Amino acid sequence: MTSLLPEWSQIKLVHGEEGANLGREVHAKERIRPGCCVAQMKPAAWTLSDTYALNRCHVCFLECSPKRCGGGCKWARYCGPVCQRLDWKIHKHECKGLKSLLPKRPPTFTRLLARMILLLTESDKYPIEAKEIQCLESHMSDRNQSQKEGLAMLISISSQIIEQNFPKNWSGTMAMELACQTACNTFSILDDELHSIGAAVFPKLAMINHSCSPNCVPTFKNDILEIRSIRDIEPEEEITISYIDVLLPAPSRKAELAETYFFDCKCKRCTTRAIPCENVSDDSYLNALCCTIESCKVACKITAAMEASPVCEDGHPQEKDKQVNVISAARDGMDTFYKWHSAKEEYNNAEKLQNLRSSLDTCLYRTHWAHLEIREAQFQHALNERNYEEALVQARFLLESLSKFSEDYIKHYKLGIANARVAKLSHLLGSFSEACHCFKTALSYLYVSHGMNHPLVKEIETQLNMCEINFSGHEH
Predict the structure, then answer these.
(1) φ/ψ of residue 83, rounded to 5
(2) Is the C-alpha dihedral spanning 452, 455, 459, 460 positive or negative?
(3) pTM (2 decimals)?
């Protein structure tokens, strides 16, 4: 398993006042233009989630009709004999254990942790991976007793997966250390729609730090993770990616980062939130309310003090009494939203989704993060039901809403996918002019975030050519 760190990249150790190692950073030696591949790597350990395990190869993640492993575990699937042979080195140690747990499916994390344990116990066969894994940050001392007890239960399941291959000489502390390292350094494997289809550990790329306004994005090309620049990066500037969804307000982002990665985010976007500045999206859009003038269709932003602005974006003064009512309705609506958010099974209930959205339409602006999440759920539901007209309505809403943001990450990552969605559905439904426009716009973004040779880019280029032929024929 090889990694590529070009010669202009360097690892910089950051030391505290007393020489303590506070972590590592990746910096650029020379200027990097947008769309460059900063680094790429295959995973040291990986596993697919249950949802995608039946229609993807478990080695290269290719979407296909994979053949099942012949060992009886009813889990591992491969696109062909090459991938099966590559995986057998590890899978032979887990196949019997997975079979013994049937009909239960162990959680994704436990399968990933089992593979991490195997890499360390087989360190003579994987010396580079084992050494890199041991250098990962764990934050074990930062975890409370409840978190450690939860990890201990997962370690127990992982030990059942690999059975006799679980190291007999390991203490509970050693196993806990590795579980903490795995939890802190796992990447979500993303498909072309940015859905998580599994989990993987890339030890070297784990050295790249987080920013809520990153200068790079992670993109998967089958089983290879590429880190690509989305704006100009100056010499000595730190290379950063986002560990979480940036379409969350600052308090939610900071809380998630503190709970999962154990740090208080001090990035430019979090420390200057709601104050527009270069390369930093105005976070006030994510909490924006509707204008109190019903005919006005622009946002009333939230100020840096988390108070509603006295005027909307068009300069209309906000009637105080009406604004109080809007804020009250927003609070009630958000209470309902949080209850819905915690009940994931309701994501596929079209009626509840529509009722929830209706309660928020009159108070939350279209760029509010809750609005975006509900619309995304409605889009996915319509797509699953093959209601393509409704899916296109939601896709257009999301595209127009995301277009309000100016941050590079959203432009080159989210907007590329959003345009591709609208283009594909418009093409399917015969709106060739709109499809051609959105295909071209999608490519302008995806050339930067994914690169010109990415399978998704090649697919969209092919669809654009077909669409232009259909459009030309339709005009005649």
Answers:
(1) -65, -35
(2) negative
(3) 0.87
